[in-house]
Amino acid sequence: MSVFFPSAPPAVSILTHRSTTTAITCRSSLQTLSPPQPSAPSSLSLPLSSNSSLPNPKTSPASSSGCSLNCPHFDSCSGCTHEDNLHRPVMLQEATTFFKKLGVSDFTFDTCRLWGWRCRAKLAIRGSSTDPLIGLYEEGTHNVVDIPDCKAHHPSINAAIELLRKGLLFRCFFCLALHFSGIKILNIDPYDEDERTGYLRYVQMAVTTYNTSLPASERYRSGRVQVSLVWNSRSETSASAEKLNNLATFLWRNGGPNSKVHLIHSVWANFQTSTNNVIFGNRWRHILGERDFWEHVGGIDVYLPPSSFGQANTRAFDSLLQKLHKYVPLGSSVTDLYAGAGVIGLSLASARKCRKEISVRCVEINKESKLAFEKTIDRLPSSIDSSISWHHADTSIEPVSWLVGSDILVVDPPRKGLDPSLIGALRDIKSAERKAMTLESPTFKAKDEKRPWVLRAREDSIQIPSRTIQEENRSLPQTLIYISCGWESFKENCTALLSSKAWHLTKAHGFNFFPGTQSIEILAVFKRGPGTSTKKKKSGKKKKKNKLS
Ligand SMILES: C[S@@+](CC[C@H](N)C(=O)[O-])C[C@H]1O[C@@H](n2cnc3c(N)ncnc32)[C@H](O)[C@@H]1O
Fold it and tell me: What is the CATH number of domain 298-500?
């Protein structure tokens, strides 16, 4: 649940989360950013679990100086950049000022969860089989820092790392009841970048907090981990396959359904032999546990294979989606660019039961996301009667063709921001619209032929459309909703859009997606045209005309 603390202009409103589970209150009530206040205002939710190393709210009240990270790895790990005032990232003041200058004085900020928020982590594995290191690189190096007590990780991730490293009582009758590491006992060497030897390169840990056999209030803290082992071999048939299977079995035996705490959801392998810094190779193999991995965000069940993009902060993403729904009127046609598995578009399609005739088109460059889209669409409520499609395409190529036929454009690009060609198309949207209205527009036809996978929400409504969405509706979006995880690129893109006078900014919201870092997630709403001042003049003229006529 979100609680709204009204604030005096020009301040930012801070929205905070009250957990359905155990909650801690960082004292204070009203939040403004100018002048800066020393104390934390928030009601903060803390996920706690039996295997959690998070502070217990009953024993560790938040300090009056704010909400601190209190992480033992802070000095050596590159993951977090600041320790204090997690509820108020450094960027927040700058963002508030930036939006105010652009006429948005009611910028809000949702503090979200401050600890245990990361539900998806990619960690490097280095060191030796007798002393494995599992964590992030030290700033500017390839030295891995062990982070067993990371305060950002969902506690289940830390527990799964622990299982990978130290294990439980494994083969204790052989080893005189000593506790040995899963890696040590199986004699699995971590990858050595210099020698290009060893087996285990990285691990991706993804937590699902959607276990419907538990009461809703217990689901978050009882999250289970999909473990993906990035293995230094070409495939599962290579010589080291036995070691890989032994490690997977070890994790499953000690963390699967027959263990004391069911921690491990599934174990996957990814095969990567490249010498570059790319984490994953192209080959994936499901080894143990459930193949299907579901999460529930934005009101829908979302399927997330390990190969597809997934948001790291599940709960914060859910808050953002709830906010986003408010900006999409019933009956809109939506294009979701940089869509991943289409979570944003599909969540919009299902947002309200009465939403009919909405059309959603998702565009994504990673073909691995297609399966996730198909699975997710299968679980959409049967009341949804929308035209929904997913396209494996590069947004930067002929971007105008993706804009045609949409009322609302949602963009959620990677950190580097929008592709220059898309920025160009949006700046020049008026002339693009004129062209689109021309029946024989070449851009139009070309894209139409390239649509490889057009899926419909319901099997029985599948029709090979004789008239595509674009042919029915050739207008271009009147609203642009920009979701950004890269503040610097957002500022640049925003300035470029506004300077074209093709768009003006109407709303902006911030979300604490990455507490402890410099980053915040932005949801910004742009409307077509140059904005209020010109509008006022125009409406003044209109009034006069009306009077005369
Ligand atoms: C920040 S993620 C957002 C994904 C999705 N909206 C979600 O929330 O799950 C950015 C996505 O853009 C995709 N992407 C990057 N460049 C792209 C391009 N040129 N065209 C289409 N998609 C692209 C990435 O593969 C990634 O899935």
Answer: 3.40.50
- Quick one: tokens of 481? 């909703």
Q: For residues 321 and 299, give the distance between their C-alpha atoms in angstroms, rounded to a whole number.
A: 9
What pTM value is reported for the model?
Answer: 0.82
- Measured between alpha carbons, how far is 205 from 190 in angstroms, rounded to an integer? 17
Q: What is the mean pLDDT of residues 500-513?
A: 98
Residue from 297, 338, 369 to probe ligand 1 pocket by mutation (most atoms less than 8 Å from CB): 338
* Residue 204 and residue 228 in contact, taking contact as beta carbons nearer than 8 Å: yes
Cα-Cα end-to-end distance for the chain: 52
Q: Name which residue leads in pLDDT, 427 or 330.
A: 427
Residue nearest to atom 14 of ligand 1 (CA): 338
Which CATH class for the 120-291 domain? mainly beta
CA 31 to chain centre: 26
Pairwise CA distance, residues 407 & 477, whole Å: 4
Of the two residues 168 and 400, the one the predictor is more confident about is 400
80 assigned to active site? no
155 phi/psi in degrees, rounded to 5: -55, -30
Cite the residue boundaries of each domain of the chain with CATH code 2.40.50.1070.
120-291
| Atom number of ligand 1 nearest to Cα 485 | 1
Q: What is the dihedral of CA 165, 170, 174, 178, to 10 degrees?
A: 60
pLDDT of res. 166: 58
Distance 391 CA to ligand 1 centre (A): 12
CA of 500 to the centre of ligand 1 (A): 25
CA distance linking residue 120 with residue 143, whole number of Å:
21
C-alpha dist (Å) from residue 75 to 70, 81, 145, 149, 529: 11, 9, 10, 13, 48
Average pLDDT of 335-363? 83
C-alpha to C-alpha distance for 180 and 170, rounded to whole angstroms: 7
Q: Where in the chain is the domain with CATH 3.40.50?
A: 298-500
212-237 pLDDT per residue, tens: 899 999 999 999 999 999 999 999 99
CA of 29 to the centre of ligand 1 (A): 37
Using the atom order of ligand 1, give the atom closest to the CA of residue 341. 9
